Amino acid sequence: MNNHTIFQFFHWYYSAEGNLWNHAAEEASHLAKLGVTHIWLPPAYKSARGLDEPGYSAYDLYDLGEFDQKGTVRTRHGTKDEYLKCINKIQRNGMQVLADVVLNHKNGADETEKINVQKVNPHNRNEKVGEPETIDAWTKFTFPGRKGKYSQFIWDHHCFTGTSYDPMTIYLILNGYTNGQWEEMIEDENGNFDYLMGADIEYRNPYVIEELKRWGEWYMNFAKLDGFRLDALKHINFTFFNEWIDHLRGHFQKNFMIIGEYWRNHVDPLLKYIELTNGRIQLFDCPLHFNFHEASLQKENYDMRKILDNSLLQHKPELAITFVDNHDTQPLQSLQSPVEYWFKPLAYALILLREQGIPCVFYPTIYEAKYADKLDDKEIYIELNSLTCVEHMMLVRKQLAFGPQRDYFDHGSTIGWTREGHGKKRLSGCAVLMTNGFTGDKNMEIGKKHAGKTFIDVCGGRQEKVVIDANGWGKFFVNDASVSVWVREDAKKYVEP
User: Fold this and answer.
1) Annotated catalytic, 261?
2) What domains appear along the chain, each with residue ranges and CATH number?
3) What per-residue confidence (pLDDT) applies to 497?
4) 464 burial level (CB within 10 Å; 0-12, 13-18, 19+)
């Protein structure tokens, strides 16, 4: 009986000095002690932009920092050997490694091809703009630095559905596999949201599917991976992932973890995707993140009784990967929707200390982040500060957050819940109380097994001690706009970082 916890070991602006793999290896033992069971590492393969971005501008999936391509041998995060050593160190500390997989597009082609295309309206990709034309498109990938090692597959325009010169100039490629149509997606955002960026991979081409199956086998074998995080699911036909996942799980005879990003602020499309993929992929709970974002902005005006509404955690908890922030939502990113600092402890308590969902903790929460980027030609400096209280919560999750859960979502500002504990987890059990308003208290039942026991707030906000009565109830307290996590006083040793 253990609680899973994922840790995202990077952020978008993490240093380009190439030390991330070494840093993750150095921190493996510390994260294991905090209860982390899975570490999500950033894309490990060569970016089309060399060291300038963290790997989502995918160029060569077989180049893990081994070949001189795009002006560098190493990737932004380090060398191939450092990556493999990092994985080994994480696994030797009892954790699993999730590799970030970007299969929607490729960037940085090595050669151009003359191809027939149809320009489309970027706001309605089903609407043609002008007549078909011939252009010189960057759609041929020969990977000259790798020279055919690991795979001799050449990507050309038959492997892609669309391409662009810039976000407002999008072309549908007119070849035998597209038949002049985008691939069908679950939703009709922008008319059709098959196209996102770069050279959009064509999944009606059987040679592409077979190559990516071979690559998946190679990657898992070569890097000894434990699972995947899949990028940009809503832009890729779900039938490909059904086939790809079944192939890999069948090949390795292992039901490894696969989590995916379907970026939508409403639960219905996520539930539809789960239905169409028959639960093969656990999804990030984006709607819950947006609840946190809105609650942090609205402050005391947000009704905390609704904090879980419209979330995957509420509707399909067994497949929900919960998170507070990530690399896409952090300030200065295109999808920025950061949770305000004051609310982060409340949000982390909601994902770490409840029975449902698997939480994912973001790198700056433990290690902080400082960076700058330009916005409207003005340089902006950002500091994301760490939260010591989250380390306490992670330890509570590891050691004490077990057993039946009782909810007290009965007040617009102050809500709470208790976990009674489990006999197989010594001294387990906890109570959580939070408010977006003023100092409050709440009587909550934690179970007769704790009768006469003293509880303390490990977040340090409240100094009083709560003694549980003979019926298993206690009166718990919380400060203004904060969260208190109450555990047995004799369990304090378990939750000190």
Assistant:
1) yes
2) 6-103+207-395 (3.20.20.80), 106-206 (2.40.30.140), 403-495 (2.60.40.1180)
3) 76
4) exposed
